[in-house]
Structure formats: C-alpha cells, structure tokens
Amino acid sequence: MTSPAGSSRRRQRSTRLVVAVLLLLVAAVAVAGTAVTGQWLAVTVAAGLAVVLGAAATKIVHTELAESRRAAARDRAEQARAYRDLDVRRSAEGVEFAADMQGRIAKRDATVSRLEKRLADAAQELADARRQLADVREQAARAEKENARLGERLSDAEERATQAVVRVAELEAQVDTLAAERAAAETALAEARMRNTA
Asked: Is position 41 within any domain?
C-alpha cells in the first residue's frame, strides 16, 4: 500500500535525519575546533552550543520518530479499513454464495422430492399393473379351464347327440315297423271283420 504521500514522507524523513546529523556534526566540529585553540571560554561556549544542537537534533529525531509512528499507525489503520472492507465484501459474497447454494439445494430438494413422488406413483402403477396382470392371467386360466370343461361338455353333448340321432333313427325304424305292423294288423282285422260279416 505505497502511496505518493508515503514516498514524500520518506524524503521528508530523510531530510530531517540529514539535518539532525549535520547539527551533531557541526556541534562536534565546533567542540573539536575550540578544543584545539585551548581557550576554555570558547570550549565552554562550543560545548553549550553542542548541547543545544544535540538537543535540537534529538528533538528532530524524536519528531521524526513520532511522525513515522503516526504514519505507520495511519497505514495500519488504512490497511485495517481495507481489510475490513475486504472482509465485509467477502462476507457479503459468502452470504450471497450461501443464499445461492441454499436456493440450488432447495431446487434440487424439490426436484428430488418430485422425482421421489413420481417414482412412488410409478411403483404404485407398476404394482397395480402387476395385480391387474395377475387378475387377467387368473381370469385367462379360469377361462381356459372353463373352455376345456365346455369342450368336454361339448364333446359329451355331441356324443349324446350322435347317440340320440342313432336312437331316433332306431326309434323311427321301430315306429315304421310298428306302424307297418299296425297297418298290417288293421288290414288283417278289417279282412277278418269282412269275412265275419260275410
């Protein structure tokens, strides 16, 4: 997260540190230069000046340190905000994803339950069809038995009819014979009566 403000702070920080180092160098040079002269007053003034310049350098470094800490805290705060925004966005995406998945799961559950209902209906239809097929087979078996029984009865009836035809023919022959005998008897009786009356 480097920004133009961060790079300008670095330049400013470098300038401040350079100024602080220069102040310390000036103080050191001043003390060293007066120490060579051997005059105590000049050395004391140079030492006082070195203390003031050292204090100024310390203040500059302290200010730089404080500002760098504030900048780092700002950077961390910006990062925290960015992470929070990212987290909020990801949480929203997660919620959206979860809602989408729940919708898909609900659709699939509805499809599964619909298919299970169709499967149960198909199984019921299959059971009904098997039951009807068993009924039809049973009816066919009964019809076949009935047909066989009726065939037997038909052949029985045909045999009895044949026997009845033969019997009727025999009876007709007997009737014819009896009729002929009766006619002969009636003729003989009529002749006998005629003879008796004559």
From this structure: yes
Torsion from C-alpha of 40, 42, 48, 52, nearest 10 degrees: -160
The answer to the question of residue 162 being in a domain is no
Per-residue pLDDT of the chain (198 residues; tens, 9 = 90+): 444 444 444 445 568 778 888 888 888 888 888 888 878 888 888 888 888 888 888 888 888 888 888 989 999 999 999 999 999 999 999 999 999 999 999 999 999 999 999 999 999 999 999 999 999 999 999 888 888 888 888 888 888 888 888 888 888 888 888 888 878 888 877 777 777 776
Q: 169 is written with which tokens?
A: 């023919």
Query: Does the reported pTM lie above 0.70?
Result: no
Q: Structural domain of residue 40, as residue ranges?
A: 4-123
The domain tally of the chain equals 1
Q: What span, in angstroms and rounded, lies between the C-alpha atoms of 70 and 8? A: 15
